[in-house]
Amino acid sequence: MAASLHLGRQGVLFGLRLSQFNKCLWHRQPCQERVRYIFQSSWVLGVSPLKVQMPALSPTMEEGNIVKWLKKEGEAVAAGDALCEIETDKAVVTMESNDDGVLAKIMMEEGSRNVRLGTLIALMVEEGQDWKQVEIPPPDVASPSVSDTGNASVMTPPAPSPSSLPKPVPSEPLRLSPAARHILASHGIDPKLATPTGPRGLITKEDALNLLKKSPAPEAAPVTTAAPIPTPSPVPTPAASLPLPGTRPNIPPLSVPGKPGAPGTFTEIQATNIRRVIAQRLTESKTTIPHAYASIDCDMAAVMRLRKELAKDQIKVSVNDFIIKAAAVTLKEMPEVNVTWSDDGPHPLDSIHISVAVATDRGLITPIIKNAANKGVQEISATTKVLAQKARDGKLLPEEYQGGSFSISNLGMFGISGFSAVINPPQACILAVGTSRTELRLNEEDQTLRTQQLMTVTLSSDGRLVDDELASRFLDKFRSNLEQPQRMALA
């Protein structure tokens, strides 16, 4: 009986210990799972992002400006949604998303300028992920700055031998001859570096010339790499830092923003991408294309009469619309002018797309009237108005300003009688149009005077593609088409 009671008590104790052990294991297991969950969660590792990089929105684009973000951080984005507006070298283009997800982080804020292609501008995450825990990639390793390179270069040159440096003189009152003073002041050399040989420590003209031979020329010694010259006095020498008397700065000083400009200062204005590209292309055109110019007067009487007749039927077209139509029909009749130039020679074009110059606040841009020879004057007028407004608003699509074959620039509305335009490469020609004017001319048939409404147009042509004879024939046929609008309908 006693033995059974003892064994029963031992069994109860063993059962209690086993239950406590299992309870301990039960509590330990969730702890391990929590640790495993924490290390696998986005709080530690972060959510893998979808990178949004600066795209090439035009063939000639190398960098862009972030104008405006159309989505906010944390906002859902579907493929095809507008993300932001980017100013390219041609216009302000809306960038669309290629993926579905959530905009997690904007890396380039609005107003960021000169963002190179391929630069990370934003991060997205997939749908259902915590966008606040997006993993931000480390920034690219920046190349050493110019200042760092300059500081390193100061430390790297070997110390010059003591014999090559002039020996400093004791700190005593300097005595210089007038000639020595003039020589040292003209070359910005510290007189303390000269070794006096004259009576009572006088620095003579010969001492100044000897020091000038040992000292390097100021132009040949860069400031960042020049070895420091030991001087006994801790006071810096103003002769090397101050400009010489009578000299003038190379550029005027920059004015302080927010304050009225002082005389001789200038204000710095950031150039848009469009204006930088315009400057680059104009310089390329004038330096690489042999420009030839030819002018002719066109009688606009028939066009003016036709405009009045169309206005009676509530059809409003401009003189420029007739000019576009006449140029397109002339190119169709003379396909040898409808060419472009490339590195391997001339390229004849199958389509006739007329580029029309439009002035905007950002610069000059040339939207395209496609297949202008196959369109009527009224259709050309409607297309031109739409494209001109989109150009002023910066909303032109790349296909609306790329690929023209012939350009027209009209300054007649500004009262310009005639001018010469710069060719838009790789095109072969550009037609500059002036204002119309009234003149009295002698009629050779009956020897009477009659009034003519004349307009001067000037053709700038690439001499490699369109020689003077071909340019003259083109202008003559263009004038015939413009003076007889019914011929354009037959063509």
Polypeptide structure, described:
The structure is a single chain. A hairpin with a 2-residue loop joins strand 12 and strand 13 (345-348). With 491 residues, the chain is α+β, with helices and mostly antiparallel strands. Helix content is 31%, strand content 21%. Mean pLDDT is 78; it is low at 1-7, 23-29, 31-44, 141-170 and 218-250. The chain has 10 helices and 20 strands. The protein has helices at residues 2-40, 146-155, 178-186, 205-214, 273-288, 301-312, 319-333, 377-393, 468-483, 485-490, and strands at residues 50-53, 63-69, 76-77, 82-87, 92-96, 101-106, 115-116, 120-125, 175-176, 202-203, 291-299, 339-342, 345-348, 354-356, 358-360, 363-365, 368-369, 406-410, 429-443, 448-462. The protein starts with a helix and ends with a helix.
Topology:
Blueprint: H1 2-40, E1 50-53, E2 63-69, E3 76-77, E4 82-87, E5 92-96, E6 101-106, E7 115-116, E8 120-125, H2 146-155, E9 175-176, H3 178-186, E10 202-203, H4 205-214, H5 273-288, E11 291-299, H6 301-312, H7 319-333, E12 339-342, E13 345-348, E14 354-356, E15 358-360, E16 363-365, E17 368-369, H8 377-393, E18 406-410, E19 429-443, E20 448-462, H9 468-483, H10 485-490
Parallel strand pairs: 9-10, 14-18, 18-19
Antiparallel strand pairs: 1-8, 2-4, 2-7, 3-6, 4-5, 6-8, 11-20, 12-13, 14-17, 15-16, 19-20
Helix pairs in contact: 3-4, 7-8, 7-9
> Main beta sheet, described?
6 strands, mixed
**Helix and strand sequence:** HEEEEEEEEHEHEHHEHHEEEEEEHEEEHH
Q: C-alpha Rg, in Å?
A: 40 Å
**How many individual helices?**
10
Mean pLDDT: 78
**What structural category arises from helix and sheet content?**
alpha+beta
- How far from one another are the termini? 129 Å
